[in-house]
Fold:
Amino acid sequence: MRPLIGITGNYGEKGCELAPGYYRSILQAGGSPVVIPPYMDDEAMEALLDSLDAVVLSGGADMNPLLVGEEPIPQLHGINPERDVPEFRLIRRALERQLPLLGICRGIQMLATAMGGSIYQDLGVQYTEAPLIKHCQDLVREQVSHTVRIEQGTILEAIFAPSHLPVDGDGCPLLQVNSFHHQAVRTTGSRLRVSARSMDGVIEAVESTEYKSILGVQWHPECFVMAGDRRMMPIFEWLVGEAGNYAEARRVHSRVLSLDSHCDTPMKFDTAEERLVTLPRMRDGMLDATIMVAYLPQGERTPEAYLAATAQADATLSRIEEMVAAEQTQVAIARTPDDLYGLKREGRKAIMLGIENGYAIGRDLTRIEHFRRRGVVYMTLCHNGDNDLCDSARKSNKEHGGVSHLGAEAIREMNRVGMMVDMSHAAESSFYDALDISGVPIVCSHSCCRSLCDHPRNLTDEQMRRLAMSGGVMQVTLYHGFLSSASEASVLDAMEHIRHAVDIMGIEHVGIGSDFDGDGGVPGVAHAGELLNLTRRLLRERFSEADLHLLWGDNFLRVMRMAQAMGQA
Structure:
């Protein structure tokens, strides 16, 4: 299938119009172009974006600086009020949906300002960093105007890598372009970086810092293509390739049940902080279901503290149920794997319930059945710090040497009532004890690989092998501290942990548990709305659709079915 590429139309005397170079370039690159006229109908825009696989932001008139809180200077040229506001709205929704974006001339400026950057209203007046070359050219559009220097390690360098461009003394490729403008990007903001500059230092290309398919160029590659010159075709071929990858990820998600096995969103119920897991973000990221946990920090181990912990867990579960009930046409509580698949068929999202820290039961094992009857599908045996059930991976005095006698009874009771045993946060000794005690496979709902990041919360290769041998599942998490100890982590690190876990355990024993709203989230997959980017990476790594069924939920749900079947025996 040819990806569908939307191109923003210009607005002139005859209304919406488009120079032919834009759509002909897309056609030659293998895409199907469609013009996006400027309009303010949000419902129509959402319907359009549902069908698009990428967006091109075309060139045109100056942007109105009043839209970004700046007063116009005398050198400002004609603005296009019909385009400005609709395009800002389009860009922001396209960004939220993770659509590939290519901005050209005016398009790079719109892209930069929509993503927190700024522009020069006029280079001749406002640019003082160096003497300017001539940017507002008198040449015809298909002729070279000047040279730009491409930064190493950028998307743009990768796009033109096969072209064998000349390089400067630092090894940076030099590209001749046709750049005709008196405005330019002034600052990129944190979400974009510079990928090319002209010889006077003016920014001529930008791209995403968040490992997304976002590129802006100040020149007019479509004019070269229109003249039969293919030197700029790699840009359009890149866009169409990214659009094809995006379309395939969406098709996969329409068929796969995607389950995030761990999020701490209830922790944000009483804060003003923006939540990483919301219904709009689940829709944008095409996430079908998430397990929201009632998290309890480890506290005092007294009868009074235990009663308070149980009450806190119950109150949190009730808050989740109330939140879901308020949006019951769009989401529902699921108790079983079959519930999840039924809700996906209905077009509704699903929330499952979990408990993070067996502190919630104190020393009263009857509370396990109580929480299972409430719909809790798993309980993490401990958190940071030992409790009465087991030793923790962190803040531990190793008081039990693993799972305590009470903890062993708790695991057997969890087996009896059909609740999964989660050993994320547990000490290695507790992990191995749980493997031996539990009558069904255990899970680690949000853990990473210790061989890649030496953190006591992560699993060693031997733990992973033993977990796989027992039939259990490890859910790779997106918390930066568990992904990388050397630098700030990104989606690339998450991919390394997934690959390593699959290599050690086999594809049948690995899944995804984000830990969103519990400090999870890294550039490239920062919240639930960006989970589609993870699938796009997996597809690029040649993971099959069958693999993605397993990773996105089937592995975890296999263990859930086993646990629940034992509970019904």
Summary: The first helix runs from residue 20 to 29. The mean pLDDT is 96. The radius of gyration is 27 Å.
